[in-house]
Amino acid sequence: MKFSQIIGHIKNIEMLLKIVKENKIFHSYIFTGVDGIGKKMIALAFARHILCIGEKNDECICESCRMFLKGIHPDFRLVDKTFQASLLGEEPEEQDNIKISTIREVIRFSQLAPSFSKYKVIIFDDAHKMVIEAQNALLKTIEEPPINTLFIFVTHSKNLLLPTVVSRSQVLNFSPLMIDDVFNILKKNGFDENLSFDAAESSGGSVSFAIKHIGLLKDIKEAVKYGQIASFVIAYKIAKSQNPKQSVSSLIDILNNRIYYYVEKNIDRYVIQKAVLIIKRNLTYKKYLRYNVNSRIISFLVLYNYFLFRRELKEIV
Question: Does residue 308 carry a pLDDT above 80?
Answer without folding.
Answer: yes
